[in-house]
């Protein structure tokens, strides 16, 4: 569990992006994949990030301050059918500027629902991640929704449809599956190479 995690701010426009020297751990994934739930489980606080929020409401970059040592940053989800073309453009511009002008991103978690088919947007996100010079981990969310014995085959499907070389980790925010692995990744990336 990450101690002393607090919501700090939501950023809707480029000029609001935080100018900070603190390292940042970033969450990306399509809407409803379980980003907010994952953040709440990491913090061990139920209502910290709003779960099941209407897609239209999550166009912001949300910063969670962890003990004044680093940030967990929740990026706007992609694949919203309710967003207008203009909203999608504004959101992707905000995300790109946030990532490209930032030397303090130490790790990106890319969340994919373990049960769902990999979408075109997921593939675009994966290709985009490969082009960044930032370490990342693919997490398959909501693993409690499939039989434990079937988890490896679900992971295999995702790996193959992304042509991913990285090992994908199954997680469950509900059942706290593999949260220790995730926390290790976070602390290794935040506290190493200081
Ligand atoms: N069974 C199960 N449901 C989950 C899990 N994580 C999220 N959910 C559900 O998936 C829905 C979307 O979750 P949310 O965290 O709001 O996703 P976000 O849009 O990516 O922030 C909600 O109804 C959550 O209760 C999980 O680990 N297990
Ligand atoms: Mg959310």
Short descriptors:
binds guanosine-5'-diphosphate; alpha/beta; 5 helices; single chain; Rossmann fold; binds magnesium ion; 32% helix; 194 residues
Structure description:
The chain has 194 residues and is an alpha/beta fold. It has a single domain, classed as P-loop containing nucleotide triphosphate hydrolases (Rossmann fold). It is built from 5 helices and 7 strands; from the N terminus they run ββαββαβαβαβα. It has a 7-stranded mixed sheet, sandwiched between helices. It is globular, with a radius of gyration of 16 Å. The model has no long low-confidence stretch (mean pLDDT 92). The structure holds guanosine-5'-diphosphate and magnesium ion. The site of guanosine-5'-diphosphate has 19 residues, from helix 1.
Shape designation: globular
Helix residue percentage: 25-40%
CATH architecture: 3-Layer(aba) Sandwich
State the total count of DSSP E strands: 7
Q: Low-confidence runs (pLDDT<50, min 5 residues)?
A: none
Number of helices: 5
Overall average pLDDT: 92
Total count of domains:
1
Largest sheet: 7 strands, mixed
CATH class: Alpha Beta
In sequence order, what are the helices and strands, one letter per element?
EEHEEHEHEHEH
CATH topology: Rossmann fold
Instruction: State the distance separating the first and last CA atoms.
Output: 22 Å
Strand content: 15-25%
Give me the secondary-structure topology.
Layout (H helix, E strand, L loop, with lengths): L4 E7 L11 E7 L5 H9 L17 E6 L3 E5 L10 H16 L4 E9 L6 H12 L4 E6 L9 H12 L6 E2 L8 H13 L3
Parallel strand pairs: 2-4, 2-5, 5-6, 6-7
Antiparallel strand pairs: 1-3, 3-4
Magnesium ion binds next to α1.
């Amino acid at each position: 569990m990450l101690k002393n995690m607090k919501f700090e701010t939501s950023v809707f426009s480029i000029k609001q992006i935080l100018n900070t020297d603190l390292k940042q751990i970033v969450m990306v994934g399509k809407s409803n994949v379980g980003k907010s739930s994952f953040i709440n489980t990491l913090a061990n606080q139920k209502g910290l990030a709003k779960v099941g929020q209407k897609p239209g409401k999550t166009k912001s970059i949300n910063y969670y301050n962890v003990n004044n040592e680093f940030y967990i940053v929740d990026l706007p989800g992609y694949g919203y059918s309710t967003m207008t073309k203009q909203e999608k453009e504004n959101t992707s511009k905000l995300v790109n500027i946030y990532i490209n002008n930032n030397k303090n991103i130490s790790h990106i978690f890319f969340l994919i629902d373990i049960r769902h088919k990999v979408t075109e947007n997921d593939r675009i996100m994966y290709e985009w991640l490969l082009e960044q010079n930032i370490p990342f981990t693919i997490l398959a969310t909501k693993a409690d929704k499939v039989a434990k014995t079937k988890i490896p085959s679900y992971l295999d499907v995702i790996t193959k449809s992304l042509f991913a070389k990285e090992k994908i980790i199954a997680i469950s925010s509900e059942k706290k599956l593999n949260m220790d692995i995730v926390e290790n990744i976070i602390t290794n990336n935040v506290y190493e190479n200081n």
